[in-house]
Structure formats: structure tokens, C-alpha cells
Write a structure and sequence with these properties.
With about 400 residues, the protein is α+β, with helices and mostly antiparallel strands. The chain contains 11 helices and 20 strands. Strands 1-18-14-17-16-15-6-8-7 form a 9-stranded mixed sheet. Strands 2, 3, 10, 11, 12, 13, 19 and 20 form an 8-stranded mixed sheet that branches. Strands 4-9-5 form a 3-stranded antiparallel sheet, covered by helices on one side. Helix 2 packs parallel to helix 8.
Length: about 400
């Protein structure tokens, strides 16, 4: 099904960077990656760098699904607050999950430094503001939990928040560790680099069935061609349920818009140009782009079908415009692009990464919620280690049977 509605900013501003053929003949590989969005691209890059022979397929054009709908705020903060995650998973695993997301931001920075351009990457702080007074008290507890975990975070009262960021709210947390990127451009550059190492990328090719025999897989496609592989990684987001046999995430729609470029007087549209998000659920979130646009998103609702999501988009756009005007009244923002995307939200805010059961060579990377790229970076690392026989204990945090 269509994963997004409207006019997503990233593929339109970048244009058609690269084209990939459909599969026309049988293939063999060490690893078949199903899904050529940002997750599949990160996997292809990491796997090929490890010397593995890789084939990547996607039923759409490369990076035209959820990746194009992403607003690509790179945050270590998980949708589930640390203080709430600790009783779900235990303190050690909860804190480790937060640190893994923080480390992933640095890994994206290092990746973009190696690519033909910076893919719009910039290091940004993250401002998490209280939507109401009750949440202000919660933020004090969250600050304590993050401080105990060794995370760099500052608690701001209402007066300090207004003075430093011009935002009116009861309280906020400010973390210097964050970033932003162009997810479409990053995926395209990573796939091109993987191709340079010998990986093959095929889009408009759907894997219709997987057969496993004696530890090897045969992937049947709608192109009357097959792919044989020792390992298969499913990186198709919530659509992975086709291969998994069950649904692990609740489907949600999120709505977003990008403004026309806004004239900047001091180099940033708001102080420090930080990522902004709130404590309410669903939450409002905002960032900027290199050409001076505001990208804002939120207004999440339950997913039913693409047609209903499409009908909801104009009303959601108007609500986002009003909220942006209230949050940052000094901006004169005119909407240039508006879109919506469907994503999977898990019970604890953690991704699902790994095999369905220990020993399987069919692996999954899904259920990212609001941390798509940071979880994808870690999925590429952990699954490459697993395929190479170097299972990492961090994989246990994201196991499918938790």
C-alpha cells in the first residue's frame, strides 16, 4: 500500500538522484536485504563494507516509501521517556537503549563526512518542552533519570526557556546531543557506495515468497526471477508482517509540512536552530533545513487506510500551521509542502531487531516509532555483527520475543 500521502519535501527537492533497474535474471548473494529505504541502505552499506555479497530489493522506487515521509530529526530521546522505560525493561537496558541512540547520531555524522556531500547533516541540540504544568513536574523526574544514566541534559524553568529560546512553556529539557539530515539523499548516497563495492540494487521488484531449505533461502519475485541467499534481512517497516506472520507494531499516521524558505537575520530561524518537541502525546515536533525552511510535524492518528489519511491531510495541515504560529509567533511561515506517512509504534518505544528466534537466518529490522534513523543505524551494526558470527549483547534489548 501507499506509505505516504501529499507532496513530501525530500524527493521533490532532490529530484531523481539515481535510477535502479528491476530484477530481470536470477541472483545469488550472501545477504538479501528486502527494502531499499534508509534502513536497507544503511544495511547494504555496512554489509558490503564487511565484504559480504549483497542484493537489495524494493517494491517501490528506492527511498520513496517511509524514508521520503520522514522528518529526520535525529534524537537519542525515545518516544517512551527514560523514567517510564526503566520499569518496562530494567534500568540497565533502558539506559543502554538511550545511549545507543545517542551514539547513532555520531555514527550518522561520521557517515556523511565520507559521502559526496553532507546529506544536510547538522548537529543540533534537542529542546523537549512541557505541554502543561503537570508535565513540567514529570520533566524534573525525567531530568533526574537521564542525569543518573550519564546523559548530558539541562533542566530549564519557564523564565530561562523564554529568555534563551523564545518559547512559552512551563519547563523544558535541553540536550546538546542531536542532529538533522536529509534521509532521501543519505539513502541514495549509501546505496551508491554499496553498489561501488559490488552490491546490486533492484527496485520495482516485490519479493512474493520466501522458501528456506537447508539453511539457504530462495526469494521468489513478481519479476519471474529468483534470488538465492544465505541470509535475508527484512527492512520493510511494518510491512515485514508478511514475512514475520504477526504484527508487532501499532500503525499510526503522522502529518508534516515544510515551509517556503524564510529569511534569516542571524543565521538561525530560532535560537541555536535546535530540534523542538513536546511532552504531549501525540507530540508536535519541528526542525529547520539548510535552505531556511521550517519542517514541522505531528497530529498523529490511528491508521485505517491511505484514502482516509489523504482526506485528513488538508485539515491536519491547517492545525499544524496554527500550532507553528502559536509556538514560534515571530516566524512568517508559508507552507510549500505537506504530506503524511504511516509508521509503526511499539509498546515500549524500542525497535525490533534480530531473528524471530535464536538461530534463524531470517532477520528483521522494524518498529522504529519516532527514532527511525537512529534505530536503523544500530540495526545495521547489530545485524552485520550477527551475520559475521559476532553477536552483540545489545541485540538482546531489541529482541522480537520480548
Amino acid at each position: 500500500m501507499d506509505l505516504r500521502s501529499g507532496r513530501a519535501f525530500w524527493p521533490l527537492t532532490n529530484g531523481l538522484m539515481h535510477t535502479y533497474p528491476p530484477l530481470s535474471a536470477d541472483e545469488t548473494a550472501d545477504v538479501l536485504v528486502i527494502g531499499a529505504g534508509i534502513t536497507g541502505a544503511l544495511l547494504a552499506d555496512r554489509l558490503s563494507a564487511a565484504g559480504l555479497d549483497v542484493v537489495v530489493t524494493d517494491l517501490r522506487d528506492v527511498a520513496f516509501g517511509s524514508t521520503s515521509a520522514s522528518t529526520a530529526l535525529l534524537q537519542y530521546e525515545i518516544d517512551t521517556n527514560l523514567m517510564d522505560l526503566i520499569p518496562m525493561t530494567g534500568q540497565a537496558d533502558a539506559e543502554r537503549a538511550y545511549h545507543l541512540c545517542r551514539e547513532a547520531i555520531g555514527m550518522v555524522r561520521d557517515l556523511t563526512a565520507e559521502l559526496p556531500d553532507d546529506c544536510g547533516f547538522r548537529e543540533r541540540g534537542s529542546l523537549y518542552y512541557a505541554s502543561n504544568r503537570r508535565d513540567a513536574r514529570m520533566l524534573a523526574q525525567e531530568h533526574a533519570a537521564r542525569t543518573r544514566a550519564g546523559l548530558n541534559v539541562e533542566h530549564l524553568d519557564a523564565r530561562t526557556l523564554k529568555a534563551r529560546f523564545g518559547i512559552t512553556a512551563p519547563a523544558a529539557l535541553f540536550s546538546p546531543d542531536g542532529g538533522e539530515v536529509d534521509p532521501y539523499r543519505l539513502a541514495q548516497h549509501l546505496l551508491q557506495r554499496a553498489q561501488g563495492r559490488g552490491a546490486r540494487v533492484y527496485d520495482r521488484t516485490q519479493v512474493t515468497r520466501l522458501d528456506e531449505r537447508r539453511g539457504d533461502f530462495t526469494a521468489h519475485t513478481d519479476r519471474d526471477a529468483k534470488i538465492q541467499a544465505r541470509w535475508v534481512v527484512v527492512a520493510t517497516g511494518y510491512e515485514a508482517e508478511k514475512f514475520l506472520g504477526r504484527r508487532l507494531a501499532i500503525l499510526k499516521n503522522s502529518y508534516a509540512l515544510a515551509s517556503e524558505p524564510i529569511e534569516q537575520t542571524d543565521g538561525e530561524l530560532w535560537p541555536t536552530g535546535c530540534l523542538i518537541w513536546e511532552t504531549a502525546r501525540p507530540y508536535l515536533y519541528a526542525r529547520t533545513t539548510q535552505d531556511g525552511r521550517v519542517v514541522i510535524g505531528g497530529e498523529d492518528d490511528d491508521h485505517h487506510n491511505p484514502a482516509r489519511r489523504e482526506r485528513a491531510l488538508p485539515g491536519k495541515q491547517r492545525r499544524l500551521e496554527r500550532k507553528l504560529g502559536k509556538l514560534l509567533p515571530h516566524l512568517q511561515a508559508e507552507t510549500a509542502f505537506a504530506w503524511a506517512g504511516t509508521f509503526g509504534e511499539t509498546k515500549d518505544g524500542l525497535a525490533y531487531i534480530g531473528p524471530r528466534q535464536k538461530g534463524d537466518r531470517l532477520l528483521f529490522a522494524l518498529g522504529y516509532g519516532g527514532n527511525g534513523i537512529t534505530y536503523s543505524v544500530q540495526a545495521a551494526r547489530l545485524l552485520t555483527d550477527l551475520i559475521q558470527g559476532e553477536e552483540n549483547d545489545d541485540l538482546r534489548i531489541f529482541r522480537l520475543d520480548r
